[in-house]
Amino acid sequence: MTPTDAKRPLQLNDLGQLRHFLSLDGLPRELLTEILDTADSFLEVGNRSVKKVPLLRGKTVCNVFFENSTRTRTTFELAAKRLSADVITLNVSTSSTSKGETLTDTLRNLEAMAADMFVVRHAESGAAHFIAEHVCPDVAVINGGDGRHAHPTQGMLDMLTIRRHKGSFENLSVAIVGDILHSRVARSNMLALKTLGCPDIRVIGPKTLLPIGLEQYGVRLFNDMSEGLRDVDVVIMLRLQRERMQGGMLPSESEFYRLYGLSTQRLAQARPDAIVMHPGPINRGVEIESAVADGTQSVILNQVTYGIAIRMAVLSMAMSGQTAQRQLDSEEQK
Ligand code: CP
């Protein structure tokens, strides 16, 4: 992992507005704050009896998920519907991709159906970026998680959760705990926290699950859980991503839980008003005790609710960034 992806030109239009959303790498603080502010304004839509605004009326959003998902897929679908878009969710396991069709050919066919946006999840790092480089210039691409690289909407919904519970990022201590090596969420969170001005980002895990070069993100590394959790305001727990592990990186799950599981006793090391977060899916008794996951400090289900608002913000901002770029291009051609 390196913090220099240089994705910025592809993600932004000539006015510096969002047109794709692929990674948080290189995005300025003002843009991340605009996403949070826009999402805040959309949260109220979820409390209305008619949960709809007309911002994407007449637009078509295609959810193309090449990897399993519950939260991201369904909240993107809900977000697009609340913006009044037409939504297609492609089940890749039963689509022509499983009959040998290439990714590019699948996308060309979806473009031919006049899709305006693709939300993509893929097991390969860089897949969303590849798609953004190869789609028609008018189509916006949103990364719903690519390999161990990035999960930018998860990163932003985590930031919205922290801001709504803690007010701001200044003076906060945030601990990210567990399988950092295989986690796209950890990477997106470290980038977002740094950009938004969080002064104390701690990363806690066994040496085998901490990637080399993490210090470049401006984080502090801890192998001892109790030491790392001392006086933190926010604890972000991560799942062991067995599907991305090769070889024996851990003695056993019970040993991992003994050393790095978030129990009530361990949580007592953090500030009394610390919040507990987890991107899901949670594994009870592996990285988190049930009493903590369901306890008063847990905001895990709030994260899911905030995810709809963040995804509404990103979809609407990327669509308006694409429209603005189209206008700039047509004025240039006159
Ligand atoms: N947090 C997250 O990405 O969950 P899903 O895999 O269910 O989408």
From TrEMBL:
EC number(s) recorded for this UniProt protein: 2.1.3.2
Catalytic activity, as annotated: carbamoyl phosphate + L-aspartate = N-carbamoyl-L-aspartate + phosphate + H(+)
UniProt-annotated binding residues for L-aspartate: 99, 184, 239
SUPFAM superfamilies per the UniProt record, alphabetical: Aspartate/ornithine carbamoyltransferase
Domain Aspartate/ornithine carbamoyltransferase Asp/Orn-binding: 171-317
UniProt keywords, alphabetically: Pyrimidine biosynthesis, Transferase
Amino-acid positions noted as binding carbamoyl phosphate in the UniProt annotation, renumbered to this chain: 71-72, 121, 151, 154, 280-281
Domain Aspartate/ornithine carbamoyltransferase carbamoyl-P binding residue range list: 19-163
Enzyme class: transferase
InterPro entries named among the record's database cross-references: Asp/Orn_carbamoyltranf_P-bd, Asp/Orn_carbamoylTrfase, Asp/Orn_carbamoylTrfase_sf, Asp_carbamoyltransf, Asp_carbamoyltransf_Asp/Orn-bd
Pathway: Pyrimidine metabolism; UMP biosynthesis via de novo pathway; (S)-dihydroorotate from bicarbonate: step 2/3
A GO MF label: aspartate carbamoyltransferase activity
NCBIfam families: asp_carb_tr, PRK00856.1
Functional note: Catalyzes the condensation of carbamoyl phosphate and aspartate to form carbamoyl aspartate and inorganic phosphate, the committed step in the de novo pyrimidine nucleotide biosynthesis pathway.
UniProt-listed HAMAP family: Asp_carb_tr
Self-association and partners: Heterododecamer (2C3:3R2) of six catalytic PyrB chains organized as two trimers (C3), and six regulatory PyrI chains organized as three dimers (R2).
Classification via PANTHER family: ASPARTATE CARBAMOYLTRANSFERASE, ORNITHINE CARBAMOYLTRANSFERASE, MITOCHONDRIAL
Family the entry assigns: Belongs to the aspartate/ornithine carbamoyltransferase superfamily. ATCase family.
Name of this chain's protein: Aspartate carbamoyltransferase
Naturally occurring in which organism (per UniProt): Stutzerimonas azotifigens
Higher taxonomy: Bacteria, Pseudomonadati, Pseudomonadota, Gammaproteobacteria, Pseudomonadales
Gene: pyrB
